[in-house]
Structure formats: structure tokens, C-alpha cells
Design goal:
single chain, 385 residues, alpha+beta, Immunoglobulin-like, Glutaredoxin, 3 domains, five-stranded mixed beta sheet, four-stranded mixed beta sheet, 12 helices, 15 strands, 42% helix, elongated, disordered N terminus
């Protein structure tokens, strides 16, 4: 996201530039600057890393003007900077087909105005939004951060939770603004850069965000970021559907896989009066740390009707079997040995381990992701029914 935020954080005006006849994928950048800059060398560059730029072209300011031209098969972000003013900042611009204008702010390079083509015009609108968001972020920090730090020091969870909730509401407000921008500028490659920001909100649902992505034009979707976002949203969507199918109150869908001794075992065959589906792996530290508690509970309550079926996200058969033996996990186990591609984990929407799904005597899911004493208390409650 560095790409967006190095760009001018100001309300940008859109300028038109006429009279330049371009062909094919040619672009022309015409800059206007204070005459005090006459004779200065100005560069067109691209970012290699956050600290390193690669110079692509250079020219000299004459009569308050400078010009760059070239060919760009697709929109690519470039940086413009003056040799004698490099430390004062750079001007971000999208090199793309068309006539691009740069109105340099001599007092503050970062507040220069770029426009003229689809992505540079969209960038202007987005920067206006980013200024507003930045101001709200600063105001929120000034109003709440000291109180939050004090509440945390004093163990005042009520105040902490209230501030977190207020910030969550602010985040949702930002996301609505970002989504509106995407819908208003569907053909701009800048849109895809906003999805990672929106996805920082853990409450965002792919079922709401995927239609927004689908409405974008082919060019932003074809970018590397666009492809990554599509893959991620599809994964999220599949997980959300799995979670809905295995939420509390639903009958647990059956599954089967191979046991350590090479046989096939299904959930139906492994059920007890109370059944725990335990998702774990030999390489999962928290899982291994929790295993002694689960062993103690199982030894105490198995005779009363508790069954456990372990579903491992291992890939290494020997390590899987070795962990079962070392941790004395005497209940039933299965695995497809596919790691995070474990189909049963995907079927149940499991994206982190350890994870548990607790079933009653009828195979209905009554709880998820309980551990320790909370898990044991729930099992005892169900066994007493």
C-alpha cells in the first residue's frame, strides 16, 4: 500500500491538456512550475524498494515547463522529482496512454496537482478521501489514545472496549467511503489497492465485498494485486459458506479420511454421546500445549460417553503418528495429510488451530472453539442431559 500513500495528500484539482495528438499507447507528461526552477534537472523514476528509485528519464526545466514522453502498455506508477529538491518530496503520477498534467507546488512538492487521464484523475479523488481519513484518524488519536493507555494501565476493560468499539465504527465509515470510490471509478487500477485496506476490518464479509470486486473493469482485475485479491476473496467466500454450514445449531456434516493404521474412518462411526472434532497438527505449538488437558478430560469422561476424533493438518505421516504416540492421544485420528489444504478443515471453515467443534448426542453442533475448563464444563453439561 506504500504506492498510494507516497502520493500527494491534498485536495487535487483536475487539469485538462489539449492539443497533443498521441498514438497507440503513448503518454506525454507536461509539467508547469515556478520560473525559479528554470535550469533545474527533473527526473522521471520508478520505485524499486521503499528506499530505492530507478531513474528512467531526465530533462531540464525551461520557461517554467518540463516534458516527459514515452509508451506504456499498462498504467504504471512513476515518480517525478527535482535534483535540487529531492529531499522535499516526489510527485507520484501514473504513466498511461494520454496527456498528463503536473502543476508543481513550489512551496510544497507533495501538494503538487496531477491529472488528465483516468487513473491520475481517480488518484486526485482518492487523495481527497485520504486527507479526510487522515484528519479523522488524527482527531480520534488525539481524543482517545491517552484515555485508552490509562484505561489499559488501570485494567479498565469497559473503557478500553468502548474506545475499540468507537474505532470499529470509524473503520466501517472509512470502508463505506472506499467502496463508494471503487464503485464510482471501476476502471481505475487504483481501486484494487484499496481492498487490502478494507480487509483489515475483520468483520468484513467476502459475500459483501466480492460483488464490488466483480463490478470492476478488466484492467484493474488483470493487475498482480487484482489477481491476488480475487483469489483471496474466493477463499474467504468458500470459508464463509463453510462456516454457515457448520455454525452452532446445524447438524455436523459427515466426513471420512485415513486413520494412522491405513483404514478409513468417518465421523458417523466415531460419534459418542458427546463428540469433539479436534483440529490440530504435530507442528502446532498451542495444540501440543493443550493436549495434556484434552488427554486428562478424555481419560475422565470417555467412559461416560465422550468421544474425540482428531483431524490433523499434518503433511508428514511419521510426524503425525509420532505426535499421537508421544502425547498419548488415545482417541481416534484421521488425516488426508494435506496441511492447510485439508478438505475436512475447509469443510468446517477452520482457518487456525487448535480448533474444536462440539457435537451433542444427535450430532448437532452446540459449540465451537472451546478450550480448557470451558470445554470440559460444556462436555459435562452435555453428558448430564
Amino acid at each position: 500500500m506504500k504506492k498510494i500513500f507516497v502520493i500527494t495528500l491534498t485536495v487535487l484539482a483536475i487539469m485538462s491538456f489539449k492539443g497533443l495528438d498521441l498514438v497507440g499507447n503513448e503518454f506525454k507528461i507536461v509539467g508547469t512550475v515556478n520560473s525559479d526552477f528554470n535550469g533545474q534537472k527533473v527526473y522521471l523514476a520508478k520505485t524499486i524498494t521503499e528506499e530505492v528509485m530507478s531513474k528512467l528519464d531526465s530533462t531540464i526545466v525551461k520557461n517554467g515547463k518540463f516534458t516527459f514522453s514515452g509508451v506504456s502498455d499498462k498504467p504504471e506508477q512513476r515518480l517525478i522529482y527535482f535534483e535540487e529538491k529531492r529531499m522535499d518530496g516526489q510527485i507520484a503520477v501514473y504513466a498511461e496512454k494520454g496527456n498528463i498534467t503536473v502543476n508543481v507546488n513550489a512551496e510544497d512538492i507533495s501538494k503538487s496537482v496531477v491529472g488528465g487521464t483516468i487513473n491520475n484523475n481517480a488518484l486526485a479523488k482518492l487523495n481527497t478521501i485520504l486527507v479526510e481519513v487522515g484528519n479523522k484518524e488524527l482527531a480520534f488519536k488525539n481524543e482517545h489514545m491517552d484515555n485508552f493507555a490509562k484505561a489499559k494501565e488501570e485494567g479498565d476493560t469497559e473503557t478500553q472496549n468502548r474506545i475499540v468499539e468507537e474505532y470499529s465504527k470509524l473503520t466501517k465509515e472509512y470502508n463505506k467511503t472506499y467502496i463508494a470510490f471503487i464503485e464510482e471509478n471501476p476502471n481505475s487500477v487504483i481501486c484494487v489497492e484499496l481492498f487490502p485496506i478494507i480487509l483489515r476490518d475483520q468483520n468484513v464479509k467476502a459475500k459483501d465485498l466480492k460483488p464490488v470486486y466483480d463490478k470492476m473493469g478488466p484492467e484493474p482485475k488483470a493487475t498482480e494485486m487484482g489477481q491476488k485479491i480475487e483469489t483471496y476473496l474466493n477463499q474467504m467466500l468458500a470459508n464463509e459458506k463453510a462456516m454457515e454450514a457448520t455454525e452452532v445449531g446445524k447438524t455436523a456434516p459427515d466426513f471420512s479420511a485415513t486413520t494412522p493404521n491405513g483404514k478409513t474412518l468417518s465421523l458417523k462411526e466415531a460419534k459418542g454421546k458427546v463428540t469433539i472434532i479436534d483440529f490440530w497438527a504435530s507442528w502446532c505449538g498451542p495444540c501440543r500445549k493443550e493436549n495434556p488437558n484434552v488427554v486428562a478430560m478424555y481419560n475422565e469422561l470417555h467412559g461416560k460417553g465422550l468421544n474425540i476424533i482428531g483431524v490433523s493438518l499434518d503433511k508428514d505421516d511419521a510426524k503425525w503418528k509420532g505426535a499421537i504416540e508421544k502425547d498419548n492421544l488415545t482417541w481416534q485420528h484421521i488425516s488426508n495429510l494435506q496441511g492447510w489444504d485439508e478438505p475436512i478443515a475447509k469443510q468446517y471453515g477452520v482457518t487456525s488451530i487448535p480448533a474444536t467443534v462440539i457435537l451433542d448426542k444427535n450430532g448437532v453442533i452446540v459449540a465451537r472453539d472451546l478450550r480448557g475448563e470451558e470445554l470440559k464444563a460444556k462436555v459435562k453439561e452435555l453428558l448430564a442431559e
